[in-house]
Amino acid sequence: MTDSQNKVPFWTRIHIDIPLLLFILALLAYSLFIMWSASGQDIDMMERKIVQVIIGLIIMIVLAQIPPRIYENWAPYLYIGCVILLILVDVFGQISKGAQRWLDLGIVRFQPSEIAKIAVPLMVARFMNRDLCPPSLKNTGIALVLIFVPTLLVAAQPDLGTSILIAASGLFILFLAGMNWKLIGVAVLLLACFIPILWFFLMHDYQRARVMMLLDPEK
C-alpha cells in the first residue's frame, strides 16, 4: 500500500460518509427509544430490533463497496421488474387486513412495494444523470412519470404511507438534480390543491384516523 493510500481515512476507503452515517445512527437511536417507550419497555423486542439494526448496518457497508456504475446499469431492470410485480399484486395479491399488498410466489411471500423504495430513487437518479443540470421541463416530466407510476400502484393497494415514502424518495432525487424553483413552486401549489381531494375522496377512514392521531396523539 502506498503512502497516499495510507493517508486516506478508513471511512473514505470503504465509501462511508461520516455525517450521513451519524445522521442515520441518530435516527436509529431515536426510533429505538420510541419503540422501547411504546412497547412498555419490552427488553426482548428491543434486543431483536438492535440485532436487526446491526445486520442492516453491515449490509449497508457491504453494499457501499459495489461500484455506482453497477447500480446504474441494473436500475432499469430493477424498476421494470418492480412495476410488473406491483401490477401482479393488484391482480393476484393476497388480501390481509383489508389491504392487497402481498405477493405469494410459493417459496416466498413478500411486498413488492419494499423493492420500490429502492428501485424508484435509483431509476430517477440514473435518468437524471444523463441530463444537464438543471433538468429540462421534458425530462422533469418523464422523471415524474417514473416516480408516480409505482407510487399510484402502491397507493391502490391501499398503502398510503409507503406510497408517500416512495414518491418522496424520487422527488428528493429530482430536487438534488437542480429542479427549477418555479417548477417546485408550481408542484407545491398543485399538491396543496390536491390535498382536499385526497382527504375527502381517496383516503380511507383508518388512514384519516392515523393522520389525526399523528397531529393530536392525546385525542
UniProtKB/TrEMBL annotation:
Transmembrane residue ranges: 20-38, 50-68, 74-93, 136-154, 160-177, 184-202
Molecular function as annotated in GO: lipid-linked peptidoglycan transporter activity
Protein name per the record: Rod shape-determining membrane protein cell elongation
UniProt subcellular location: Membrane
Lipid bilayer topology: Multi-pass membrane protein
GO cellular component: cell division site; plasma membrane
Secretion signal span: none
Species of origin: Xenorhabdus nematophila (strain ATCC 19061 / DSM 3370 / CCUG 14189 / LMG 1036 / NCIMB 9965 / AN6)
GO BP: any one term: regulation of cell shape
Keywords (A to Z) from UniProt: Cell shape, Membrane, Transmembrane, Transmembrane helix
Superkingdom, taxonomy of origin: Bacteria
InterPro entries assigned: FtsW/RodA
